[in-house]
Amino acid sequence: MALELVGGAFLSASLQVLFDRLASSDSLDFIRGQKLSDSLLSKLKIKLLIVDAVLNHAEMKQFTDPAVKEWLLHVKGTLYDAEDLLDEIATEALRCKMEADDHSQTGSAQVWNSISTWVKAPFANYQSSIESRVKEMIGQLEDLAQAIDKLGLKPGDDQKLPPRSPSTSLVDESCVFGRNEIKEEIMTRLLSDNVSTNKIDVISIVGMGGAGKTTLAQLLYKRRQSGGTL
């Protein structure tokens, strides 16, 4: 896990999902019914925005700074925890709303009672833990936010990822041994006059990893470039 590269785009998408769920009217009504203050929800959103602002820079910097890579992994874990909590809230909010709808046929007094139940109903024995879990999540995000300056992460950094080394089909034949016979056999088959002109001849090069399959293909390609025709 420590060696895994964490994609900023993936984390940004996860954050957008969290923002959408925090803005859901059903979830907001249910959370407020648990007497969770709006200021606490605002604080949670602000902390998420602070982390989101530096994700692009962190994604680039993780290639050269192991501490940034570790920071991103902690961000990923915290976002997973936040998604789990908001999923539970959304599920419970939907359950309570459906129960209120089911009981809406029994009379106006009970309808209002059902609506009140939907907004104020606790998670059974889970009621007291909602606020504590949100506070715990805010604490984790605060720790991550405090590390931003120490890691030298900048908001709005649009630098591109370091370019990959260009690939090449060239191969140093002086470093290749024991492949001439196989190479000539394949070339003979590919250039054979017996091959039907109406059919493309395909020869598979198979074998275990490290056996030199790619090297052999590169040798054949180099032979073609130097004057052969395939």
TrEMBL record:
Name assigned to this protein: Putative disease resistance RPP13-like protein 1
InterPro entries named in the record: NB-ARC (IPR002182), P-loop_NTPase (IPR027417), Rx_N (IPR041118)
Top-level taxonomy: Eukaryota, Viridiplantae, Streptophyta, Embryophyta, Tracheophyta
Tree of life domain: Eukaryota
Organism: Vitis vinifera
Pfam families, A to Z: NB-ARC, Rx_N
Segments passing through the bilayer: none
Domain Disease resistance N-terminal: 10-102
Domain NB-ARC: 183-223
UniProt entry keywords in alphabetical sequence: Nucleotide-binding, Plant defense, Repeat
UniProt GO BP: defense response
GO molecular function: ADP binding
